Amino acid sequence: MARNSIPSRRRLACAVAAALSVPLAAGLAAIPAQAAPAQGTGAWNIDLSVVDGDDVNVRFAGGNLTLRDRGARGASVRATGGQGYLLLPERRLGRSVNRIAAETSATLPEGTAVEVDVRGTRDGESWTEWTPATGGAAVLDRQVSTVQVRVGLAGTGTASPAVSAVRLSGDTVPQARAGAAAAPKTYRVFATREGLVGGTTANGHVIKRRDHFVALPSRRGLAPKNAGDYTVRVCRTDNSRCEYAPVWDVGPWNTKDDYWNPSSQRQMWQDLPRGKPEAQAAYQDGYNGGKDQFGRRVANPAGIDLADGTFWDGLKMSDNGWVNVSYLWTGSGKTGEVVTAGDPLNVRAGASTSTAIKGFAAKHAEVILECYVEGETVSGHFGTSNIWNRIGPGHYVSDTYLLTGSDEPVVDRC
Predict the structure, then answer these.
(1) Which one, of 277, 268, 249, 269, lies nearest residue 193 by Cα?
(2) CA spacing 20 to 30 A to 310: which of 23, 105, 246, 298?
(3) Domains of the chain
């Protein structure tokens, strides 16, 4: 099977992300819902009726997008009201842009909210973070040729917002030249075991026994179901065991704490240093009165939740504790998606199945390919090869389990 034979929104790439939410007061004239015009950079209305399997807890009826279950939310989300989103198909633009604006028409009962997130990409790269806007247009840090929109709804448990239209537009403004390639940001944070087997994550995944994914307290890095667009490398503090796992849930504690971003870009808590979760600051330092964004007393400093398989099998942890987390989408370079029959892929200390197992790479995880070596010939999902890719410090996986878009190496020799 050729590696470039699987079309997917996950294989398109990263240039930038931006988002904007401008809820209009109830009673204002709604933007007329209509079919999107031929793809281009002019303004377009999105089709809110295209609810399907990659959407979470939303429905379209009577001309409005609403929550299907007003109390349902992601397993790790501790908000009191319902949560859900509509994930729109990717839209290839007629030319590159670096600013995206969105306008919504919605009825918002007290306590409810609508947020429109947009991310951008260029062919051959990886998706950027989802970025919610606080008002006005969002300026992207690079040019993008493809955009994707996510319309998020938040209810109160008894009430839901009703979105009748969303209109977007893209244009270009001057920007600074992109910097050199960078390694992903890594921070030491406290990890808790998520558990919650049988529950549903914020991206619609039903949690299985010994599952392999993580939760972070922000939707900016939430991957769609069965995708690894946003993947972390989480390791024990001595780096003796690591797992590469996709971000499929939101939590713990907060839902707008993208602490891995520069302080000035954090959605909330911009007076905290980069890399320090709000829950950690609240627990250790009494920040925000020792409470999370919902006013609850923080009982531990957690900045990441680990699914049971990641916790017990990938890292071989027996209790909550500190870990090193690398947020891979904050780096740059060629990537590959782990494709297996279901079980996670062994990460080896060298280019051979006889070398030590250093941890796992979960199915769907999207890993950065640093370089390649020739080693033991093995047979995997994509045939037989002696090519092994280094995906981290002393971490090697067979190229036959990676969707890279090519049957040949896509990076330089180590």
Answers:
(1) 249
(2) 298
(3) 16-171 (2.60.120), 185-330 (2.40.40.10), 335-403 (2.30.30.40)
